[in-house]
Write a structure and sequence with these properties.
Layout lengths: L2 H4 L7 E5 L3 H6 L7 E5 L9 H14 L6 E5 L8 H11 L3 E3 L6 H16 L1
Parallel strand pairs: 1-2, 2-3, 3-4
């Protein structure tokens, strides 16, 4: 392998898309972003979180080729939405998860433990 092949690909643009907005989800692949963050946190009203999880799961399953890196931003660990977000997100198969408000090594370990459980469920 040469240096170019071993170096991580730099991402120049990240696009946040509310997971509850089907029209915006549909437009995201054509907007030219290197990575798209499908938001379940601040971009989604509490009453629409369940719907957003379903929309994101269906949307990602329909993406083939994955020229774009797809991430899902879940709600924080200490929210009532975290477990359902994590379970749904793992099943959706994103390239990565974004966990907000992780401000200590201990919290990172807790999130990692929950993620590991969800991956093996």
């Amino acid at each position: 392998m040469n240096q170019t092949e071993t170096r991580a690909r730099l991402r120049r643009s990240f696009l946040f898309v509310p997971g509850s907005e089907e029209r915006k989800l549909a437009k995201a692949p054509g907007l030219g972003a290197d990575a798209v963050i499908l938001d379940l946190e601040d971009g989604v009203a509490p009453a629409r979180k369940t719907e957003a999880r379903k929309l994101i799961r269906g949307f990602l399953q329909a993406q083939s080729g994955r020229a774009i890196e797809w991430l899902i931003r879940v709600n924080g660990l200490h929210t009532p939405y975290f477990e359902a977000d994590l379970e749904s997100s793992v099943r959706a198969g994103p390239d990565a998860l974004v966990s907000p408000k992780v401000d200590s090594p201990e919290l990172l370990q807790l999130v990692d433990g929950h993620l590991t459980e969800a991956e093996h469920a």
